[in-house]
Design a protein that fits this description.
It contains three helices and two strands, in the order H-H-H-E-E. A hairpin with a 7-residue loop joins strand 1 and strand 2.
Length: 79
Amino acid sequence: MKIPNLTAKQMIVYRFIREYMDQNRESPYIREIQQGCSITSYKGAVDKLLALEKKGYIKRKLNKHRGIALNKRELVTAE
């Protein structure tokens, strides 16, 4: 099965989440992702998370403030 590649912006968000979780032992808030990745809108950050979840890189727990879990620790190249 082919693993979907990430776009450059999705890669930035994925790396931010992974590094944040490595340093803090918990997932970041969406607002922290927005600020840490220089995304201009909250919805833009949510859209990136939805794409990562659709591609199987993360799993989100709805209605949880820090509800992001990584499914894949490795990275593939950007599209």
